[in-house]
Amino acid sequence: MAFVAYFGYRQMKSSAAAEEMLKSLVEKGDTQSWPYPVVQYLQRQLSAEQLLKLAKDNDELTEAHAYLGMNLSLAGNREEALTHLYWVRDH
Questions:
Q1: Exposed, middle or buried, 46 (CB in 10 Å: 0-12/13-18/19+)?
Q2: d(CA 71, CA 49)
Q3: Per-residue pLDDT reduced to its tens digit, 43-84
Q4: Could you give the CA distance from residue 57 to residue 80 in angstroms, rounded to a whole number?
């Protein structure tokens, strides 16, 4: 639910609230397990390629591609976002 809130805040152009949501994930989340690497990616601590490499199975890979697609879409990178979102659809 925290990721839904984060992307919702981003869609509403409420950057401060989105960043607060990520901060709370860092404080309350389990930094040793999935989906913590997604948090690191959203905080620009990991690249998209690094995030995808950390996914251990198809479920995690699907999540990673979905979050990459949503993040890129909200950043205005439609074509790159679609590449990831099509991957989710196809897998």
A1: middle
A2: 14
A3: 999 999 999 999 999 999 999 999 999 999 999 999 999 999
A4: 22
